[in-house]
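fyi for ur records
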Amino acid sequence: MNELNYVMIGKQIKKRRKDMGVTQEQLANYLDVNSSHISNIENGRAHPSLSALINIANYLKCSVDLFIASEYDCDLEKINSKVHSKSKIDKQLELKLKTCDDVVKEKLIKLIDIL
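which gave:
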């Protein structure tokens, strides 16, 4: 297995942090570390643990995958589209349900249970 690209991971953390309007100091305080440690992570000089990545992601309200997606060898978009693809009938049902109020949805659930 190859070494993780911590420079790229750090760049993604920095981008997300800036997009969220969070300072290095705020993130450091949340993680109970020195702000220079956040700088070192963002510049690839420090390698955050998995638990640190999870804590950073939680604070920045995102998935750890946002930081490490570039590490995957497979085509995640292709995989995700297959996993999340819906049949034509599923799409039609979803569209119809969007226009129903909760009373109608409850009746539909009862009908489905009967079937």
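The chain is about 65% helix and 0% strand. thats all i got for now
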